[in-house]
Amino acid sequence: xxSFSRGWAFLQQAWSMAFKDKxxxxxxxxxxxxxxxxxxxxxxxxxxxxFIAGGSEIGNIVMGAFGALLMFVQFVVSYVFSxxxxxxxxxxxTKGDGRMEEAWAIVxxxxxxxxxxxxxxxxxxxxxxxxxxxxxxxxxxxxxxxxTGLLETLWTEAAYLILPAMIxxxxxxxxxxxxxxxxxxxxxxxxxxxxxxxxxxxGLIGFVFGVIGFAIAFAVGGGLAYVSGGNTAVSIVGIAIxxxxxxxxxxxxxxFSSYTSTAYHTCLYMWARDVEKATAEGSSVPVMAPAPLxxxxx
Length: 298
Known about the structure:
Blueprint: H1 2-20, H2 26-53, H3 57-95, H4 100-109, H5 111-133, H6 139-169, H7 173-186, H8 188-227, H9 232-280, H10 291-297
Helix pairs in contact: 1-8, 1-10, 2-3, 3-4, 3-5, 3-6, 3-9, 5-6, 6-7, 6-9, 8-9
């Protein structure tokens, strides 16, 4: 319950910040649009290969390669726009304003580091997928699935903190991993409780958005199909409108989750970084956390 209340407190603070500076939300929206375009374009060659050589060994290899490439590009898109969000939040909290042109310049500066982060995330994702596809019985296969699932969870959390290290302090992947490892080690309880709380809150709200979207979509789409009296064209239009409504709600839920998670990890990194600096300087004065995170710390 404590973790949920902390997550809810942070959510209120983070979105209050976003409503004051709408630029903070723009990268998350751009990520959704670009991500959808990349997915549509990326799935085309996979479908073509599946149609031409599906079931053959060479066909499976080519589809696997295209799938890995698509996963990598999706991670790049996600990290580029999340990186912009990180810098916008950092700018807002330190300067009172997050500027899009500065965020874009920083992302261009750190683009190679973002590529390395995306490459590792892709490798972790491929390992998990390979383990999940191995449906052989036995303890070894079960342990492999559990281990790769845990690895993906831990790496996803680490990547959320490594990205701010890259963007704010211009660290490469190796130095970012070292910095994040130190942060987690020194603040394990806070990271665990707060992260779980933020995930619970965003997950719950995302679920509610999904249910509401489905209910409205079903009512509109089903209603049009019902009153059409069997008219195929009207039924198709109704289904299309219903699908559009549902996916709009899903996109809003995704935007909500993306921004909130990025804001949390950015604030957490900024605070841990300042604490680390104060400790190194021998200061005994408590370090104030960024306003949104201060609500979590209580």
